[in-house]
Amino acid sequence: MKQKFKIRSLNRNDFTEIEKLLKETWLKTYDFIPINVLLEHLENHYSVQKIDELFSNPLYYCYTVLNEDSVIGWMKLYDNKIEKKFYLSSLYIHPDFQGSGIGKELIQIAEQKAVELNYSYIWVGVMEQNINAMNWYKKLGFNFVDDEPFVMGKTSVNHFIGFKQLK
Question: In whole angstroms, how large is the CA radius of gyration of the chain?
Answer without folding.
Answer: 15
